[in-house]
Amino acid sequence: MKFRLGDSFFSNIWRRAAYTTFAVAVFAIGISTAHGIGVPDGALVLFGVVIALLLTVICTVVHELGHAVAAYLIRWRVHAIAVGDYCYLPVRRKFTKVLGVFSKDNGGWVLATPPPSKTWDNNSIVFVIGGAVANGVTGGAALYLSAWAGEANAMSALLVGFAQMSLAFVLINILPVWRGDQWRNDGASLISYCLDGPPSALDQAIARCNGAIFDQVSIDSWRSEDIEQLRLGVESGNADAHAVLCYYYFRTADLSKAKALIKKLQNINEELYAAYMPDLAFIAALADNDGAKAADILGAVSDEQLKKSFNFWRAQSVVYYLKGEQQEALSAVEKAKALARKYGNPLDDDDVRLFNTICEERPLPKFGGGASATK
């Protein structure tokens, strides 16, 4: 029987208590460090908050790099290393901004998978604990160096503050915290691995396909077994499987299936559904030729980050074109192209064909090669 960390009253209370305690500890460490470096009492709170934020960012970077180094040590392939909304894509050697569901994680994340010749095994545990180990090692090193720096000086205070923040990061990541089946921290993942072993076939398929998306691997190279697992995941109501399979249908130009999956998401995961609203508007405009409906969907997008995404402005360009507002359509095309360049995502052949059609005022094309869904 599979161990499940389901959502419950206890898990919600525990999660809130854990993160409230962590936030208080972070603030206290910031104040203590500011006091240690000699900040006047009148500016103690302001400088304490700034120091706390800086130490938090540094420890987050150390934590995620720890996961990445652990992945490399066990010969896994690292697809993305993210802190906040920004991530580095090692395979493509690019930094980019992550929108939608991937930007909702707490602080940061690393996506890594074994190479095709290997499978998930006990090495998964090495990957999971890599972040906490990195925080522990760097925190211990900082504490050791503080002794060499001497007492009652700014450098010593900063090193001790970093060591304290590192310890706080170790504890908040090792203590199991989770939110149903949607998200779990390292501690909860560790418990799951110890009791159940490697991830399920579905979770492995989702990870591999997401890795292929970040690496911009050709859709033709996706494993048929993974696609079948995604379909089974959709049948069981797995929201992540919905999202990845929706990308697959977009890339293979099966817009009717993509549309059906997005609509199903509304009843499964409203947050994920909201992230796909620009894509739903794009389908309504391009496949259904319903500019009014597409405009209504785009008007309902409330996430300011999504309003600055490639997908939003791609859909908006088609809406304007259907309404006969050529100048607005051209402006939307330029915004979409600029966003694609900004985040290092080259336009695929269908996007190029679509934008050329709008610029040349020709009938909208019928897709046969796939319109990209996540840029």
Task: Give your account of this protein's structure.
The protein has 375 residues and is of the alpha+beta class. The protein has two domains: 188 residues, no CATH class; 143 residues, Alpha Horseshoe (Serine Threonine Protein Phosphatase 5, Tetratricopeptide repeat). It contains 15 helices and six strands. The chain has a four-stranded antiparallel β-sheet with strand order 3-2-1-4, sandwiched between helices. Strands 5-6 form a two-stranded antiparallel ribbon. A hairpin with a 2-residue loop joins strand 1 and strand 2. Helix 1 runs antiparallel to helix 4, helix 2 packs across helix 4 and helix 8 runs antiparallel to helix 9. The protein starts with 8 loop residues before the first helix and ends in a 15-residue tail after the last helix.
The domain count comes to: 2
The end-to-end span amounts to 39 Å
Q: Radius of gyration over alpha carbons?
A: 23 Å
Q: SSE order in H/E notation?
A: HHEEEEHHEEHHHHHHHHHHH
Runs in which pLDDT lies below 50 for 5 or more consecutive residues are 368-375
Strand content: 5-15%
The biggest beta sheet, please?
A: 4 strands, antiparallel
Shape: globular
User: How many beta-strand elements?
Assistant: 6
Continuous helix count: 15
Oligomer: single chain
Structural class: alpha+beta
Biggest β-sheet: strands ordered side by side in the sheet: 3-2-1-4
- Helix share, percent: 55-70%
Average pLDDT, all residues: 87
